[in-house]
Amino acid sequence: MRKLIYIGIVLLAVSCSSGGDSSEEKKASNPEKAVLVFPENNSECLEGQIINSQKSTVNFKWSKANSTDSYDISIKNLNDQTVKLHTTTNTSLNVEIDRGTPYSWYVVSKSKKSTTTAKSDTWKFYNAGEGVTEHAPFPAETVEPLNGAEVTASGGGITLKWSANDLDNNISSYTIYFGETTMPEIHQSDITSSQLDNVAVISGKIYYWKVKTTDEEGNTSMSDVFSFKVN
What we know:
- The protein has 231 residues and is mostly beta strands.
- The protein contains one helix and 19 strands.
- The strands form four sheets. Strands 2, 5, 6, 8, 9 and 10 form a six-stranded mixed beta sheet that branches. Strands 12, 14, 15, 17, 18 and 19 form a six-stranded mixed beta sheet that branches.
- Residues 3-18 have low confidence and may be disordered.
């Protein structure tokens, strides 16, 4: 009888131990977020192999992410919004891109042992061009409300906040497009700060907005269209 009880206790312990290890192994197999290295954020990329006056090859680099078997690299041309996707098992990749053009990029870590992926931060850079002495601003990014967020209006209005960068540090003004359609019309122009207060909204509606950034030389950039819902 004692022998049977002892065997039962051993089997129970093994069963519990096996379940715990399985959970830990599954957690450990999830890939971690990669840290981008080069091209640096909000910078001009002067390195790379020049192919001709229109193209150059840039070496994209990022840190090794734990529990990762491969990386998907997304590189977006901010002028025409086209996206190039690449996959590699290395932590660097040579990619041919346009010169004199702003880009954004990020890396997605993937594992064969997990369906979970991890996305890096998104960085922007300007690939140097032939004889370029001035640069258009990078497209603005939303700060508040975050894209897809649900917000509560105070006194029937909200505040729109955004951020923008320019390599020449000469942003002069912003134009805000705002409305209830995915192609919002101009709401207010010649804004010199990076926020707009007391924007009237109605509870239960979804709103769309974007930002046009203009610098002192007349160069412009247009942000993506952001959206939010009012509670």
